[in-house]
Amino acid sequence: MYVHQQMLLSRRSSLLIRRTFFRLFLHRSAVTMSTSLPVVSPSQTRVGWIGTGVMGKSMAAHILSAGYSLTVFNRTASKAQHLISLGAKLADSPISVARCSDVVFLIVGYPSDVRQVVLDPVTGVVPGLFPGSVIVDMTTSDPRLSQEIDEATKSVDCFSVDAPVSGGDRGAKEGILSIFAGGDESVVRRISPLFDCLGKVNYMGQSGAGQHAKLGNQIAIATTMLGLVEGMLYAHKTGLDVSLWMDAISKGAAGSKSLELYGKRILEGDMAAGFFIHHFVKDLGICLKECKAMGLKLPGLALTQEFYTTLVATGDDDLGTQAIILALERLNNTSIRRKTT
User: Fold this and answer.
1) Contacts of 92 (CB under 8 A, 6+ apart)
2) What pLDDT was estimated at residue 274?
3) pTM of the model
């Protein structure tokens, strides 16, 4: 009996050792492969782009301007026409983009869109990839989906990077986005010339870390935006000139990017979307889901999500995130916006 137990333990130990060596082999193979691939440059790298909406069209245009060949796909083909006029080629499906690209970027609406675009067994990106290709998902999405995509790309000897961005339409147009990257660090470094066309890349950790960093960013934006419009309403109610008040606080501790980008637009009643409310509600919903999974309670996040959800209910979901002022104005039966003459 004792000898039999010892034999079982020996077999289990042997199996564990073999599994450990196999995992190390896979890791080393992936690292070797990622560092031995061609250098990214306009003369050697074919780029694909999926999603040419408010953000994507400007971002893709920067890739073209840098001299890279670009193949694009968008569900509504007319939204890609500007890029076609600049020299991009139009594909008829995500898999078609993958078949003629070394690096495929996507920035679409929802995690369900990401799943369909990347993982669909018939039309998705993964089935069309060549060994060594890279998927870069710049959509704000579910960290677990990023990890699932990472496993899918590894299974076909490819790589994935989750790289959501912050900076809005202005950041996209000017090429000054903040990029949160998760995945193999050597892969992120290798494709950094492409990221440099779009803004500044910040390596956050392994697969899913980029998404977690962006979700934290969205929480900070949400609560900052709520604080900004509450301060504006308070200043208005006390009889202050809100424009003068904004200028005064911008030079102190209350100064913020939200104030810089949206303060004047709010006061002038400009609610045009740099980032749609319905996408922000999606992002905050993912934040709350992650918080629930971690047992984390963030009341400021939950309250701000409620205000944005009321704007969806009133049909204002195609406005920009600064339109949270409308919910607060309705709550207080007042308006701070300047009267046009």
Assistant:
1) 73
2) 83
3) 0.86
Work out the number of other CB atoms within 10 angstroms of the CB of residue 93: 17
User: With a cut of 50, which residues of the chain have pLDDT below it?
Assistant: 8, 15-31, 340-341
Q: How far apart are the first and last CA of the chain?
A: 96
Q: What pLDDT score was predicted for residue 338? A: 65
Residue of 214, 257, 264, 289 marked active site: 214
What mean pLDDT value characterizes the chain? 91
DSSP string, 113-144: HHHHHHH-TTTSSGGGPPTT-EEEE-S---HH
Q: In angstroms, what is the C-alpha Rg of the chain?
A: 24
**85, 60 Cβ separation under 8 angstroms:** no
pLDDT of residue 58: 97
What amino acid is encoded at 13 in this protein? Answer: S
pLDDT, tens digit (0-9, with 9 covering 90-100), for 133-163: 999 999 999 999 999 999 999 999 999 999 9
Contact criterion met (CB below 8 Å) for 106 and 139: yes
Q: Rounded to whole angstroms, what are the CA distances from 120 to 73, 154, 232?
A: 15, 16, 47
Distance CA 254, CA 248 (A): 9
Q: How far, in Å, are 3, 147, 179, 210, 251 from residue 204 at the CA level? A: 50, 14, 10, 6, 30
> Is 214 in the active site?
yes
Compute the Cα dihedral for 185, 189, 194, 195 and give only its sign.
positive
| CA–CA gap between residue 48 and residue 93 (Å, rounded) | 11
Model pLDDT, residue 15: 43
